[in-house]
Design goal:
This protein has about 90 residues and is mainly alpha-helical. About 70% of the residues lie in helices and about 0% in strands. It has a domain at about 30-85: Arc Repressor Mutant, subunit A (Orthogonal Bundle). It has helices at about 5-25, 30-55, 60-65, 70-80. The mean pLDDT is about 80.
Length: about 90
């Protein structure tokens, strides 16, 4: 990913894509959608647990520990902060 990427715009784009994916629920296989949502919830809970243990944890180390990209991990951390969960 380019260094000049605006994280706010990246997050907004991802939120828009999530919204679009919710609109596709009518045509998507509901079982796969449920599995994805469950996986996302598990990732969020794992991030919350790790950040509570080590509040100053480096996002890159956290991403590597979760097997996610840095940008994906940063997005989830931002989302959880915005929701007041961390």
């Amino acid at each position: 990913m380019d260094e000049g990427v605006d994280p706010t715009q990246m997050c907004q784009t991802l939120v828009d894509k999530v919204f679009q994916s919710r609109q596709l629920k009518a045509v998507a296989d509901p079982e796969i959608l449920i599995l994805f949502e469950n996986w996302l919830e598990e990732l969020e809970e794992e991030i919350i647990t790790k950040i509570k243990k080590i509040p100053s944890q480096d996002p890159i180390a956290l991403a590597e520990g979760l097997g996610l990209s840095k940008s994906g991990t940063t997005f989830l951390i931002t989302k959880l902060r915005r929701e007041g969960r961390i």
